Amino acid sequence: MIAELPKEEILRQREFAAMVRELLAVRTQGASAFVQTFGCQGNEADSERLRGMLELCGFARAETMETADLILFNTCAVREHAQDRVFGNVGAVKSLKERNRKIHIGVCGCMAQQKHVAEKFRQNYPFVDLVFGTHALHRLPELLYQLYTAQKRVFALDETAAIAEDIPLRRSSDFRAWLPIMYGCNNFCSYCVVPLVRGSERSRSPARVLAEAKELVAAGYKEITLLGQNVNSYRAADAAGETVDFPKLLRAIDDIEGDFWLRFMTSHPKDCSEDLLQVMARGKHIAMHLHLPAQSGDDGILKRMNRVYTSGEYLRVANRAKELMPALSVTSDIIVGFPGESYDNFKNTLRLAEQVRYTSLFTFIYSPREGTRAAALPDPVPHAEKVKWLQELTALQERVSAEQCDAMRNRTLRVLCEDDGKKMRWSGRTQGNQIVEFDGAAQIGHFCVVKITNVIKSRFYGEMI
Ligand code: SAH
Ligand code: SF4
Question: Largest CB tally within 10 Å, which of 89, 347, 352, 441?
Fold first, then answer.
């Protein structure tokens, strides 16, 4: 089911935006806003909407926090460390406010959606004026209006998660775009706070997703990344009432004429079907990259994580993907030190990483999150021990990555140039999402062909041909 917010609600927000614009015009000579984003690509995409709404409300974009009249922190709650960084950053702007009482400070997103965290901001951060969770994101114009007219702090912890369409959007790049296709998650992995702060799964209408993808290609975007916590469980009805699943949606976007790469993340291994792999293998635009988080290579730990696959099943999917697409780059997330994990359990993760031969790995030490099932489990292994395990995994991965990169010497690769490199060289990414530094007459936001002339650890160096 597509749970879109009624059009009237979006129109109501546009009216609030107009009222805020009027207020700002009367009170100030051009107010500006700064949005700082923490966390995943989903948050980056949300921040593009926040910036779009701020623009509609009459704010210019401030280049720095110090020059902004409104500072918004769009936050991440996935690990304690991420959360601490936010508290640190928010704490640091207190002095700005003390120097200039006119500025306003807001905290939104995943942290703000949790009641106990919102309460902490209420109690301990009196200089924070505005707190709103992920479900209230589309109400920013209304919340700003309340803030400016009532002259008191505003807290919005809406409980209902819906899809807000037709929100103004200010993209941060003119050649790479985030395209959210679904929100929320129903998987309830036992360690994960995401379902608690993002709500249950909602898929956007296929017509809307396709129209947005076509617009992006027509506007010259070279890389489109479809976003969702678990894109493989995308499911929505089209105008004719037919169910569109993820492989079907991906194929429809891949059919768009143009020169672009199509990426997607994240894929849950349990739903990574043969159908999806076939669509990838036959795709014209689909990048040869699959982010397939394993989390662990131990069946007992996977079970307690509620990942609902075994390491054998995971390996079969990864091997099948590589069989169909020999050039495929497979990457993964791994959690080290889940409650009750022993070194023997962890060795199975090392073994899996060796067997899959990932291009790269994102590794995290387990972090207990309030409200999740794993947070109640006994966790006797000391942190220092977990750090050692993490280092062992990182060392293994560095070796595997370097071996794979070394085999690419003298090959030519298509690269999307993304940076003119302060280091005198250009830099870009391959289809497999690997970084390449190169010389030549490139242009940011354009594809070029690069011959790999050197490899240092897992970084490519080359020359444009
Ligand atoms: N929906 C995606 C991403 C979720 S969050 C997925 O399922 O893959 C990104 C990553 O953060 C996860 O893949 C996991 O590896 C890590 N993560 C989530 N909760 C965590 C926790 N409590 N402690 C440590 N790492 C965590
Ligand atoms: Fe969290 Fe699991 Fe959902 Fe990913 S699939 S967001 S790890 S609950």
Answer: 352
Tell me the CA distances in angstroms from 252 to 138, 182, 248, 262, one per residue in order: 28, 16, 6, 11
Concatenate the DSSP letters of all residues of 161-173 into one string: --B--S-----S-
| DSSP summary character for residue 59 | P
DSSP classification of residue 375: G
- pLDDT recorded at residue 3: 80
**Ramachandran quadrant class, 440 (left: phi over 0; alpha: psi -120 to 50; beta: rest):** left
- Domains of the chain and CATH, by start: 7-156 (3.40.50.12160), 175-287 (3.30.750.210), 323-406 (3.30.750.200), 412-464 (2.40.50.140)
CA-nearest residue, atom 5 of ligand 1: 78
For residue 227, report the distance from its CA to the centre of ligand 1, in Å.
Answer: 15
How many other CB atoms are found less than 10 A from the CB of residue 207?
13
CB of 188 sitting under 6 A from ligand 2 = yes
Q: What is the pLDDT of residue 420?
A: 72
CA of 187 to the centre of ligand 2 (A): 6
Q: Whole-angstrom Cα distance, residue 304 to residue 317?
A: 21
Instruction: For residue 289, give Cα distances in angstroms to 255, 258, 330, 449.
Output: 18, 20, 6, 18
431, two tokens = 């289809």
d(CA 445, CA 343): 45
- Stretches in the chain below the pLDDT threshold 50: none
- Specify the pLDDT at position 280: 98
Question: What pLDDT shows up at residue 440?
Answer: 87
Mean residue pLDDT across the chain: 95
**Of the candidates 84, 60, 70, the residue with the CA atom closest to the CA atom of residue 36:** 70
Closest-approaching ligand to the CA atom of 267: 1
Q: Give the Å distances, CA to CA, from 448 to 225, 284, 328, 415.
A: 20, 17, 20, 5
Going by C-alpha positions, the residue among 142, 133, 156 that lies closest to residue 57 is 142
Distance CA 77, CA 59 (A): 27
Question: Does residue 170 come out as left (phi exceeding 0), alpha (psi in the -120 to 50 range) or beta?
Answer: beta
What does the block give as tokens for 93? 């702007």
Could you identify the residue written with the tokens 């209230």? 136
Q: What span, in angstroms and rounded, lies between the C-alpha atoms of 387 and 378?
A: 18
Cα(13)–Cα(293) distance, integer angstroms: 38
Helix boundaries (H) for 238-332: 246-254, 274-282, 299-304, 311-324
Write down the pLDDT at residue 25.
Answer: 84
Q: How far is CA 126 from the centre of its chain?
A: 30
pLDDT at 179: 98
Report the alpha-carbon distance of residue 291 to residue 269 in Å, rounded: 10
- For residue 91, the model assigns a pLDDT of 94
